[in-house]
Amino acid sequence: MTIQTAKLSDPAVRAFVAAVNAHDRRRFMDLMTPDATMSDDGSDRDLTDWIDREIFSSHGHMDVDREMNNGRDLLAGYRNDTWGEMRTRWHFEVSEDGRISRFETGQA
Q1: Cα–Cα distance measured from residue 75 to residue 73, given in angstroms and rounded to the nearest whole number
Q2: pTM recorded for the entire structure
Q3: What percent of the chain has pLDDT over 70?
Q4: pLDDT at 72 over 90
Q5: 18-71: pLDDT as tens digits
Q6: Of 53, 62, 58, nearest in space to 18 by CA
Q7: Is 10 helix (H, G, I), strand (E, B) or coil?
Q8: Residues 76, 11: contact at Cβ < 8 Å?
Q9: How many Cα atoms sit within 13 Å of 45 on the Cβ side?
Q10: In 3D, which of 50, 38, 29 has the Cα closest to residue 92?
Q11: Residue 23 to residues 1, 15, 18, 57, 76: CA-CA distances in angstroms?
Q12: How far is 24 from 97, CA to CA, in rounded Å?
């Protein structure tokens, strides 16, 4: 059963999922620290290039199935126009100011 975005435990992660699903790139970028990094399937990627390709230009969408680690780790169905639908895992590191400094994703 999917967890409603509004019920996700961690405020930064909740805002991340909401921005992805609303296709709101500006809100998404406001959630990131200036030096934020990310990885996909264990390989570091350029954050701006990756989000434009994998989320915003391809209409990415997350349906969270499970959260762990106080909401900083997710299992989710993720879909976009490029790859279709897949089961994914997400891990978030959140800075003291409540913004995301790193996220890691990949197939679960």
Answers
A1: 7
A2: 0.96
A3: 100
A4: yes
A5: 999 999 999 999 999 999 999 999 999 999 999 999 999 999 999 999 999 999
A6: 62
A7: coil
A8: no
A9: 18
A10: 38
A11: 23, 12, 8, 9, 17
A12: 21
